What we know:
CATH architecture of the largest domain: Alpha-Beta Barrel
Largest sheet: 5 strands, mixed
Helix content: 10-25%
Radius of gyration: 20 Å
CATH topology of the largest domain: N-terminal domain of MutM-like DNA repair proteins
Amino acid sequence: MPELPEVETVRRGLNQLTLNQTITGGDVLLQRTIAYPFSIEEFIESIKKSTIKSWHRRGKYLLAELSPPSTWLGVHLRMTGQLLWLNRDEPLHKHTRVRLFFGEEQELRFVDQRTFGQMWYVPPGVAVESIITGLAKLAVDPFSPEFTVEYLANKLKKSRRPIKTALLDQSIVAGLGNIYADEALFKSGILPTTICADLQSPQIEPLRTAIIEVLSASIAAGGTTFSNFLNVKGVNGNYGGEAWVYNRTGKPCKVCGNVIQRIKLGGRSSHFCSQCQK
DNA sequence: GGTACTACCTGGAGGC
DNA sequence: TGCCTCCAGGTAGTAC
């Protein structure tokens, strides 16, 4: 599942491969992948002749800054989306949803098994947040200076939700998903069921540090291999072997040997060690 | 406003 | 072997 490290890995790859490349055409194989504009013909016509100036990331959203100025291409990979930089003669995968052509030889291909991924074209003179509405609700990025202990404490102090549920809320921490929320809670020794308002002040700083550390480690390794994540060159990440608790139900804790447990919180699986996390 | 729940969707795993 | 059911999960929408 692409979370912040995977999206960041994709962004870096795209910045290496696609800058100053001009979109010469495209093909939309699944209409609902295009969230805006509502007509796929308008999407293709709008984006044609655009040049990619740079790729940015906000939470799990990828934003391509285009030329003509003030136009943007937004991409969210959701659960199974992949952006692949390929030769145009590469055989089409059955889950190919959108193709953006760059001349006669190259294309940026959006492959998405579960079809949750989306793309937006933001026309000139329109606020990006008004088209990609999810951006308006995004919290600060974990790597930004604003992600302080005080910020996190303020966000959590009044909530009666379990901390795991809160960490998945993109209006509290942008970019965190199920995998890294479990890992960060393990590293900070906090049970996922702990009610946010019941967290003690000394627990907030280790939690903030753990969030940054697990995300940084995964980015450094090129993203996780827990799922079918591939970078833009189609290469799998390297982080999978280092998971402390995620997807290790029934296996011994790497620290104390206690059995890793799995429960459901907010409809999502949570993995934890009841010995190491209190 | 805060929280919980559901739908969206496909393919793999497991049970029979 | 084939069919069926369950599960995975990010986000938006809805209900309370």
